[in-house]
């Protein structure tokens, strides 16, 4: 589907990723040689997005095996790289299970990490297959007029491997000739919407408009949004959804304006061990300077730069995620189909969690 992937292996059997901190202005590839490189890439958001974090951690375990590092230490360090996206822990648990009893740790880790990547590609493609009818239905209702979709942060291919989660139904709608337009929340403070979603929608020729995070409610009040689709970093057994900070506010506005609010959810982002997302999902707090400074391309030098947007002495709070309660979620779009944001809805599609 896409001209590029977000993580790949090299001829000398190492791993390369795109430094997403530099997009959309610079295409910088970072080579991961050691598991500490993978850990740092996750921590510093060289790579980000729940599924890609999981894939990077999986290859981090491969790199640990390749370099002869202490695997227990590597698992422990990678588990601490970021707390909210459950894919990280899912991927590490999958690698640990696969390596248990393996004779050739390096080869086994290499193959399992590669399989995690391929599985995500197919999972995201299927999210598109199941999400497409939702867009189609609105298009038909609008007699072919443009379907306006609002999204928050980046849950596109750059948060995954190819298709992306929220972008998969959008890309498949465009491929089918359905007219769509995407309102892209810039998504302060790291601007994943402005930097990443706009970048990939541009590359895929998807009409879109960048908006400040606070504009979404106004657009919804004035009938300019037909549906919202967002990603998730962790969804609980009862359908509570952790996603980038600000998602909850969009869900409130959508609910108030009777606009469908969908969550694109790969099952690798399910945490069926917890119910109450507000009480049980760990919310990452990141460095306050991500709020105090903005990174962008200087009009003067044309180089990437960061500028202070508040007084030197002003402190900032920087919660990375919030939790949208299931009651505000219209439905979950998964690789096995669309279901209600509830335990009953999830168990219909994923009975193995009974
Ligand atoms: C399919 S990506 C899911 C999720 O990850 C993003 O967070 P971050 O950029 O901090 O890793 C965002 O919450 C996306 O919706």
From TrEMBL:
SUPFAM superfamilies (UniProt xref): NagB/RpiA/CoA transferase-like (SSF100950)
GO BP annotations, alphabetical order: L-methionine salvage from methylthioadenosine
Entries under InterPro entries matching the protein: IF-2B-related, IF-M1Pi, IF_2B-like_C, Initiation_fac_2B_a/b/d, M1Pi_N, NagB/RpiA_transferase-like
Keyword Membrane recorded: no
Pathway terms, separated by semicolons: Amino-acid biosynthesis; L-methionine biosynthesis via salvage pathway; L-methionine from S-methyl-5-thio-alpha-D-ribose 1-phosphate: step 1/6
Site (Transition state stabilizer): 153
Residues at the catalytic site: 233 (proton donor)
The EC number(s) this enzyme carries: 5.3.1.23
Gene3D superfamilies cross-referenced by the UniProt entry: translation initiation factor eif-2b, domain 1 (1.20.120.420), Translation initiation factor eif-2b, domain 2 (3.40.50.10470)
Molecular function GO terms recorded: S-methyl-5-thioribose-1-phosphate isomerase activity
Catalysed conversion reaction: 5-(methylsulfanyl)-alpha-D-ribose 1-phosphate = 5-(methylsulfanyl)-D-ribulose 1-phosphate
Statement: the UniProt record of this protein carries the keyword Oxidoreductase: no
Binding site residues for substrate: 48-50, 82, 192, 243-244
Record keywords, A-Z: Amino-acid biosynthesis, Isomerase, Methionine biosynthesis
HAMAP family: Salvage_MtnA (MF_01678)
Similarity remark: Belongs to the EIF-2B alpha/beta/delta subunits family. MtnA subfamily.
Function in brief: Catalyzes the interconversion of methylthioribose-1-phosphate (MTR-1-P) into methylthioribulose-1-phosphate (MTRu-1-P).
Protein name stated in the entry: Methylthioribose-1-phosphate isomerase
Organism of derivation: Fluviicola chungangensis
């Amino acid at each position: 589907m896409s001209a590029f992937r977000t993580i790949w292996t090299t001829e000398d059997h190492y791993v390369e990723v795109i430094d997403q901190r530099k997009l959309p202005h610079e295409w910088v590839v970072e080579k991961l040689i050691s598991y500490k490189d993978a850990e740092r890439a996750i921590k510093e958001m060289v790579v980000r997005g729940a599924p890609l974090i999981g894939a990077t951690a999986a290859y981090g375990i491969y790199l640990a095996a390749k370099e002869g590092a202490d695997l227990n230490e590597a698992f422990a360090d990678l588990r601490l790289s970021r707390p909210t996206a459950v894919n990280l822990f899912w991927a590490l648990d999958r690698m640990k299970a696969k390596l248990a009893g393996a004779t050739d740790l390096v080869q086994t880790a290499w193959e399992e990490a590669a399989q995690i990547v391929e599985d995500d590609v197919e999972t995201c493609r299927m999210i598109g297959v199941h999400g497409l009818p939702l867009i189609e239905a609105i298009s038909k209702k609008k007699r072919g007029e443009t379907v306006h979709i609002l999204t928050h942060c980046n849950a596109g291919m750059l948060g995954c491997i190819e298709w992306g989660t929220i972008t998969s139904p959008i890309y498949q709608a465009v491929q089918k000739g359905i007219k769509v337009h995407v309102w892209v929340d810039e998504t302060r403070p790291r601007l994943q919407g402005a930097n990443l979603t706009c970048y990939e929608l541009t590359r895929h020729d998807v009409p879109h408009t960048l908006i400040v995070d606070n504009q979404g409610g106004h657009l919804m009040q004035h009938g300019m949004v037909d549906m919202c689709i967002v990603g998730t970093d962790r969804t609980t057994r009862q359908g509570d959804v952790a996603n980038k900070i600000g998602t909850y506010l969009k869900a409130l506005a959508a609910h108030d304006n009777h606009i469908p609010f969908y969550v694109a959810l790969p099952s690798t982002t399910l945490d069926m061990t917890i119910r109450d997302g507000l009480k049980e999902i760990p919310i990452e707090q990141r460095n306050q300077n991500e709020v105090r400074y903005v990174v962008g391309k200087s009009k003067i030098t044309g180089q990437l730069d960061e500028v202070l947007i508040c007084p030197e002495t002003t402190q900032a709070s920087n919660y990375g995620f919030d939790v949208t309660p299931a009651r505000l979620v219209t439905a979950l779009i998964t690789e096995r189909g669309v279901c209600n944001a509830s335990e009953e809805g999830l168990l219909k599609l994923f009975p193995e969690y009974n």
